[in-house]
Amino acid sequence: MDFKNKKVLIFGLGRYREGSGVSAARFFIRRGARVTVTDMKTARELRETVAMVRGKVTLHLGGHKMEDVRAADIIMRNPGVPHDSPYLAQARRLHIPIYTDASLFMMLAPCPVIGVTGTRGKSTTTALIGEIVKRKNKKTFVGGNIQRSPLTFLDKLDTNSLVVLELSSWLLESFADIKKSPQIAVVTNIYPDHLNVHGSMRAYIRAKENIFRFQKSGDLLFLNQDNPDTRDMKKRAAHGVYFSVKNVPSWLDWGNVTLAGDHNKSNVLAAVVVALAVGVPQKEIGAVLKSFRGLSSRQEIVRVVRGVTWVNDTTATTPEATIAALHRFAPNGKIILIAGGTDKKLQFGALAREIKKQCKSVILFDGTATVKLMRELGIMNYELGITIVRTMADAVRRTQKIAERGDVILLSPGAASFGLFKNEFDRGDQFFREVKRITPPRLPLPR
Q: Distance between CA atoms of 261 and 95, rounded to whole angstroms?
């Protein structure tokens, strides 16, 4: 595709240096396009990423303009721009092509793509697949929703390369426009999530199914048999192979797998079946499983201070993800949970029941999800301490006051981060910084 002198409108610059907006802008600049970037946020709010493109693009920040849409030849839709945006509706009426960075990449990639989606575990599974297949193919690249746009490495690819992409539901939604799916697709699991965006579980699942809906003969699909919704997907797929923790390869010894948590067993199996499919020897797979410890911000033990363990699980943005963390770290009611935030139209009854079993106290960020969770905790007759905070510094400070030796301080919000933080990673970064600032008391010097 020739983009020289094409008028490209990028909806959403974003705050990530290798994210969708910045990467799309730089991609089209390199190809001689005339780029306009628009964002609801101001130049001050986006100062770090604005500095990366200033002087090379036209910036219309602090709001969108319909005239920018009418003037565009191509529109790039980035995170935060809803599918039913009136600006995108106008573009469709004018037959202006709309891409995400992932859908554009799929149009242009010269090599096979392994796509990974699911509600939980897709980042870990994507990263683990990447680490394993690199043992066979040194030209393997990893990107997508894992904080790195695939447009950052598109120019480095050739027909011998291999790409592993983490694909969220909003990215997969755009695959319906290009009628393309990855050559190898993996679905880790499905739980209620993003219902504030998709409106229903049916629409959410349908978006996820774009990962295999347009596959061709000879393409591969791997589904988690242990999850009802992923198991059900096989009925709507032309093909598909299950993986299950109830059917583990005889050579796979869980004792040699470093990645902690029972919930990660499905992620490991997903990575194993993909690695075997692309020809990675069992010995190489085993070597990676023995060394791979997982990604940061996912049930990550940040520090142990005075016998208190601080855990960063900021990417737990659904109640089910927080429940998984509670199960892993449950030391008989010794958890102080930092949770809450913005609701995604999810249900919090099951989480409230687990909190009553496992938590001695709860610190909650102010927000719509917190209102729903507190209502459920009231129904459960949860009588221990609940504190509402608006900053991470306050959350950590209040937690320090009640923590005792043997406690686990678990940041696992079960909700989105809108309003109080830039995103879930900013939330985790702030937690990490505040915990690192904790100074243990000085011991008296020996006489």
A: 48
The mean pLDDT of 393-422, rounded to a whole number, is 94
Cβ atoms of 3 and 31 closer than 8 Å = yes
Q: What are phi and psi of 40, to 5 degrees?
A: -70, -25
Average pLDDT, integer, range 306-318: 95
Distance from C-alpha of 309 to C-alpha of 409, rounded to nearest angstrom: 6
Q: Token pair for residue 125?
A: 């599974």
Alpha carbon 414 to chain centroid, angstroms:
13
Q: Among 351, 345, 330, 331, which residue's Cα sits nearest to residue 413? A: 351
318 alpha carbon, distance to own chain's centre: 11
Q: Give the pLDDT mean for 18-26.
A: 92
CB 62 within 8 A of CB 40: yes
State mean pLDDT over 223-244.
Answer: 95
The candidate with the shortest Cα–Cα distance to 242, out of 259, 230, 229, 260, is 230
Nearby residues of 444 by Cβ (< 8 Å), 6 or more positions away: none
pLDDT band at 332 (very low <50, low <70, confident <90, very high): low
CATH topology of domain 7-99: Rossmann fold (3.40.50)
By DSSP bridging, strand 184-187 and strand 162-166 are: unpaired
In this prediction, residue 442 carries a pLDDT of 59
Q: Sheet holding 184-187: strands in order across?
A: 140-144, 162-166, 113-117, 184-187, 220-224, 241-243
* Angstrom distance (rounded) from CA 206 to CA 53: 35
Has this prediction a pTM greater than 0.85?
Answer: yes
At a CB cut-off of 8 Å and minimum separation 6, what does 14 contact?
A: 20, 21, 22, 39, 46, 49, 78, 79, 80
Using the Cα atoms of residue 167, residue 168, residue 169 and residue 170 in order, give the sign of their dihedral: negative
User: How far is C-alpha 152 from the geometric centre of its chain's CA atoms?
Assistant: 18
Tell me the torsion sign for CA atoms 115, 121, 127, 132.
negative
CA 248 and chain centroid, separation = 26
Q: Where are the domains of the chain?
A: 7-99, 102-291, 300-436
Superfamily for domain range 102-291: Mur-like, catalytic domain (3.40.1190.10)
CATH architecture of 300-436: Alpha-Beta Complex (3.90)
